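pasting RNA polymerase sigma factor for the record, 179 residues
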Amino acid sequence: MNPEPDLREALLAAVPSLRAFAISLSGQVDKADDLVQETLLRALANLHRFELGTNLNAWLFTILRNLFHSEYRKRRREVEDPDGSYASHLRVQPEQGSHLDFEDFRTALARLPSDQREALLLVGASGFSYEEAACICGCAVGTIKSRVNRARLRLAALLNMDDMDDLGPDGMTRAALQG
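structre below
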């Protein structure tokens, strides 16, 4: 869209004031120039919204100010890392593995005998003491301890877990996370 000659001249005449305002906001000449350029691009794209006879400078300064604040909010969430040193220390465990592990656990838990599953869930998941679980199940404390122990051993076998290293990420993922 080509603005009318008078409007074009008014836009160009506003550039020095816009630039000075942008420098005062950003504190950096190169960022200020980018801000002025983006302001002019937005103004030209939305020229149909400008009401002739109103204050063009006020409209342009409002666009510039809004752009600055939008960029500031966006940059606040960003971390500057020009040499990549910050990013090289970031490591995140893959999320899909935990979902698959949970599904494997649910399947294995369902395969336990009901008395073992019940004892394990009362003690392990619900946090009841062995004594409280024994009262709930109506059996001796030793019976609950035995059921929980057998349930844990059976779960470990069903999940192919040999030792504590099998908990958490697999060996390859652990090695990648250690970098």
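The mean pLDDT is 83.
The longest helix spans residues 5-26.
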